[in-house]
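Possible regression after last week's pipeline update?

I re-ran a chain I had predicted before the update to compare outputs. Posting the input and the new output here so someone can diff against the archived version. Not blocking, just want to make sure nothing changed silently.
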Amino acid sequence: MSLTPEQKQFFDDNGYLPYSRVLSDDEIQALRQRSEDIAAGRLTHVPSTYIQFEEQFRDGKETVEPRIDMIRKMVYLCYHDDLFEAVAKKTEIVDVIEGLLSPNIKLYTDQLMMKPRFNGTVTDWHQDSVAWPMFAPQNHVSCWVALDDATVENGCMTVIPGSHKWGPITREYKDRFLAQPHLAEPVPVELKAGHCMFHHGLNFHRTEANTTPNRRRGLALHYLDAETSYLGIVDESHRGQVEGTPRKGNTPFMHIRGKEFPGRV
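New output (post-update):
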């Protein structure tokens, strides 16, 4: 489904776009079950390196059951798991990415943000692209797909409309930037399970804690124009990558649609 002119203009003006349903009930249930099986260790095809616990559980002194309620996020699922890869390649999502970004599309990475019930912590204001300075230009578009209902109470995404227009703001200047009186008021984006939103990589966003009994899993899919230059990472090891994974060193990013370009991502 292509974007309407009004939707495209909204994204250009605000740096985000609440969108419609992109997952069926069966797909939602299958992805929930798959995330639970990976989290519990019943499936082991995703390297443990890519499973990050909430900070309070990282030293192993405190635990809760089930294990999924201790996990902050799981990454690179699309490179290891067929169900998650299929979501990244869904026509309903990729058509919108093409309309917002480029007809030539690569996937950088994915993050299943777990925001576990009772234990999900705050993710403070940030721009995704600032964390990825190894790409030029910094022009990512992300799709955030709700696997559970995302509400204000359990930590849905909150955005600052129009903040993407100010370019990358380095961390040491972030607080000064956010204090500027000309910025728009933050807007929470609640989503029903199976629905999604899109946001520019330079849009400031955050999520609150989840102290409710309701899980709030959201799959963040981060897309690049295939003509983007990859500048490399000085120290690949800090990314927790292990031998044999698709993102080791300079191996290609996942091709989603359109042309590929020599020497680019």
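Follow-up from reviewer: compared with the archived run. The domain at 5-257 is CATH 2.60.120.620 (Jelly Rolls). Marking as no regression found.
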